[in-house]
Amino acid sequence: MTWRLLRAAPLRLGGFVFLWWVLSEGALEDLPLVLLFALLATAASLLLLPPALGYGRLRPLGVLQFIPFFLWGSLVSGLDVARHALSPKMSVTPGFLTLELRLRTQVARIAFVWAANLIPGTAGVELVADRLVLHLLDRGQDTEVSERDLRRLEARVARMFKEEAWLA
After folding, report:
1. Which residues pair with 66 in a beta bridge?
2. Which of 12, 90, 120, 145 is 20 to 30 A away from residue 22, measured at CA?
């Protein structure tokens, strides 16, 4: 067993147990069964996403700093979607935007795509190597502002994965 595996296994196991605890609202019934399934999920995650390929150099402090941004983005995005859905006249001009990502690792790029979906009216469509195609609900908006927002998001994701040096 490698050092990375020995370090990753308990973290992943703890993450799966914590996820169960949150989803079950803190219930402690069937704990042995939960531990069994958490162990199986941990084993599957280690096989499918080995530590050497996985999270790169994920920084816990970077993740903690990202959480408020994520929560605020979810709220703003939800309100924007509701505003568009309830608006009597929806004047939108959908379109696409191609962005060359500066993130080095695939896991950081995927995290970026997930987070980019929080930007109101934005959805990741295709990610090939370092090229991301995004669908914009309203292409009529100032595209430069959208690109600036995406670069800020990329910098936040880079801080989570210790990739700040690559963004210079």
Report:
1. none
2. 120
Which structure tokens are listed for 166? 């690559």
Q: Torsion over CA of 93, 94, 96 and 97, rounded to 10 degrees?
A: 60
For residue 53, the model assigns a pLDDT of: 55
> What is d(CA 167, CA 154) in angstroms, rounded to the nearest whole number?
9
With cut-offs at 50, 70 and 90, classify the pLDDT of residue 55: low
| Beta bridge partners of residue 140, listed in sequence order | none
Burial of 127: CB neighbours in 10 Å, binned 0-12, 13-18, 19+: middle
Do 95 and 142 touch, CB atoms closer than 8 A? no
Say how far apart CA 152 and CA 141 lie, in whole Å. 18
Q: What is the DSSP letter of 77?
A: H
Structure token digits, residue 67: 């959480």
pTM: 0.65
Residue 129 contacts residue 84 (beta carbons within 8 Å): no
In Å, how far from its chain's centre is CA 113? 7
The pLDDT value recorded for residue 13 is: 92
Question: What is the C-alpha R_g of the chain?
Answer: 19
CA distance 128 to 131: 5
What are the angstrom distances between the C-alpha of 104 and each of 21, 55, 117?
33, 12, 20
